[in-house]
């Protein structure tokens, strides 16, 4: 078997590939042997860390175009031959940031999929692996490349499903028994897009922290900086960190357990007023050369705005903020924490804004259409509002907010999302769609919560055996640094510590899912 598969790893095996609306430009197929790689749990999102050792697989890269659109898209698929052998299944991995896939992170995810026996696939959506979307989204200043935007938003995702399934079938002589999609952040958005627009693309989808309303989420990443710019005040990160720490200590116990984790951010927002901290001294401020500084009024306003979310000049709320307790200033210096949207850089007592790059890209490249004369640090409130409004008008293709998932359900699809603002999609869906909130988790990775590493196998059992997932185990690091085994529950249920007959919150058996 292995010998014949090795022999089949040549372009001619894949000669029959076809896709309506596309033209195959070239096919590469190369045998890869003795491939060894580590795949960390956060690269896999919903699966545990694993090692791929001495694998033999066929690496097939299909290059195709949509004739007339001048695009060139690469779908790369790894087909296991030995160590391990194929498990009869396909797993597609999603992108991150402004990258559709086919970057180092995708390859790490794919190595993990391969280690479990899946055929693994990724697409670059024709955009390459650049992290700067201006390169593909802006044809020339003022002109958006709508073909690229559509490939990124949706089209290439469905192409990838069709092409990779064909590649699998051509190689093994039989179709994959089941096909899965797994992604977080941009990858989570891709997963929801697939369920909503291409309901037969995958049997099972795991979508983490989906950037659901990307046309609004994108600019919201810049919002705290806009507030700083309008105030012309750029606080020390330690001021904002101290405000967050105060919120954590005040709101922590609301869920019955003092563990450093805020489980109910809305209740915390209602309870906690940062203004009372104005003037509070913060010792050992890193950005102030370890001197003591006082919490400024500006810091409280900026932190408050970051938590409450985007509000127009007229006071209308337009998009969510981040939960109190998040590392918005990047002062926590949590490894891989990328979402600090209210960060500053300070030198000799003078601070400037340090915006989140994804937010800058949204403002500059997408909403600003690559205008070299646009200085987003100088936007007035009404200019900022206008850009967001415009973005909602023209970038609806990014958004994955269609609550009609009936076609996906009818096709037998199963969807698990985890962490994020997806509750609008969740009315009466438990037979095919469940959502898990992980209060201690950062954006896809980091902070107090570990990854929900059993979710993918629970999704698989749901798809293949009809066993719907209930709670899922998750490890959290609590205040004293120790690791506790907890559970995350399908929304709207929440995990509750049962004190009766149970002493130890570190025992997962002491937690149960209850209606809120
Ligand atoms: C296989 O890979 C390992 C580790 O990368 C390396 O030490 C070894 O020499 C390789 N073996 C062969 C036969 O290439
Ligand atoms: C690596 O895999 C190849 C092909 O499956 C096998 O022949 C070889 O013995 C393996 N090497 C080790 C060190 O396991
Ligand atoms: C698979 O092939 C593509 C195209 O040649 C190449 O870019 C990629 O690095 C290869 N991957 C591996 C793991 O060999
Ligand atoms: C501030 O304190 C940190 C941690 O103790 C230390 O690493 C750093 O060098 C100090 N910075 C200055 C400017 O003294
Ligand atoms: C925080 O933001 C909310 C919502 O915009 C607002 O009602 C409240 O006055 C703000 N509080 C502070 C201290 O800025
Ligand atoms: C489905 O059920 C069978 C029989 O109980 C079991 O062997 C198999 O592992 C299950 N598959 C999944 C994906 O859970």
Automatic annotation (TrEMBL):
Protein name: Carboxylic ester hydrolase
The EC number(s) this enzyme carries: 3.1.1.-
Lineage: Eukaryota, Fungi, Dikarya, Ascomycota, Pezizomycotina
Organism: Chaetomium fimeti
Keyword Calcium: yes
Pfam families named among the record's database cross-references: Tannase
Molecular function as annotated in GO: feruloyl esterase activity; metal ion binding
Keywords attached to this entry: Calcium, Disulfide bond, Hydrolase, Metal-binding, Serine esterase, Signal
Top class in the EC scheme: hydrolase
Family: Belongs to the tannase family.
Highest taxon of the lineage: Eukaryota
Coiled coil: none
SUPFAM superfamilies from the UniProt entry: alpha/beta-Hydrolases (SSF53474)
């Amino acid at each position: 078997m292995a010998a014949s598969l090795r022999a089949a790893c040549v372009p001619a095996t894949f000669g029959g590939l076809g896709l309506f609306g596309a033209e195959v430009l070239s096919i590469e197929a190369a045998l890869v042997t003795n491939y060894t790689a580590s795949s960390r749990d956060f690269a896999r999102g919903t699966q545990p860390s694993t090692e791929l050792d001495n694998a033999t697989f066929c690496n097939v890269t299909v290059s195709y175009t949509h004739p007339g659109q001048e695009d060139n898209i690469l779908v790369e698929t790894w087909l296991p031959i030995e160590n391990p052998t194929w498990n009869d299944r396909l797993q597609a991995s999603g992108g991150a940031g402004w990258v559709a896939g086919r970057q180092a992170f995708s390859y790490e995810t794919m190595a993990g999929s391969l280690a479990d026996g899946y055929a693994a696939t990724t697409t670059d959506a024709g955009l390459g692996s650049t992290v700067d979307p201006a390169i593909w989204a802006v044809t020339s200043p003022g002109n958006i490349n709508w073909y690229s935007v559509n490939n990124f938003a949706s089209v290439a995702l469905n192409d990838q499903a069709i092409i990779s399934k064909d590649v699998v079938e051509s190689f093994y002589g039989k179709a994959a028994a089941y096909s899965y999609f797994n992604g977080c952040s941009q990858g989570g958005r891709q997963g929801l897009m697939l369920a909503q627009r291409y309901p037969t693309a995958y049997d099972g989808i795991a979508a983490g922290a989906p950037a659901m309303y990307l046309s609004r989420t994108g600019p919201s990443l810049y919002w705290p900086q806009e507030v700083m710019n309008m105030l012309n005040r750029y606080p020390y990160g330690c001021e904002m960190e101290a405000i967050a720490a105060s919120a954590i200590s005040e709101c922590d116990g609301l869920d019955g357990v003092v563990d450093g984790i805020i489980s109910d951010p809305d209740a915390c927002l209602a309870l906690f007023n940062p203004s009372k901290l104005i003037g509070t001294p913060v010792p050992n401020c890193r950005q102030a050369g370890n001197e003591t500084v006082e919490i400024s009024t500006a810091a409280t306003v900026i932190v408050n705005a970051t938590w409450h979310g985007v509000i127009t000049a007229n006071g209308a709320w337009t998009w969510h903020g981040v939960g109190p307790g998040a590392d918005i200033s990047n002062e926590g210096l949590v490894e891989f924490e990328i979402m600090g949207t209210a960060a500053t850089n300070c030198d000799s007592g003078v601070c400037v804004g340090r915006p989140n790059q994804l937010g800058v890209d949204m403002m500059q490249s997408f909403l600003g259409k690559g205008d070299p004369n646009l200085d987003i640090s100088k936007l007035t409130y009404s200019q900022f509002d206008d850009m967001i409004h415009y973005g909602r008008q023209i970038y609806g293709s990014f958004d994955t907010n269609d609550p009609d998932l009936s076609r996906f359900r009818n096709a037998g699809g199963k969807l698990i999302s985890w962490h994020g603002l997806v509750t609008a999609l969740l009315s009466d869906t438990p037979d095919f769609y469940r959502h898990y909130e992980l209060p201690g988790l950062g954006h896809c990775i980091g902070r107090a919560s570990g990854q929900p590493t059993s979710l993918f196998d629970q999704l698989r059992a749901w798809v293949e055996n009809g066993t719907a997932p209930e709670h899922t185990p998750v490890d959290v690091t609590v205040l004293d640094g120790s690791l506790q085994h907890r559970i995350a529950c399908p929304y709207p249920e929440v995990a509750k510590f049962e004190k009766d007959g149970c002493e130890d919150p570190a025992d997962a058996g002491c937690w149960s899912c209850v209606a809120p």
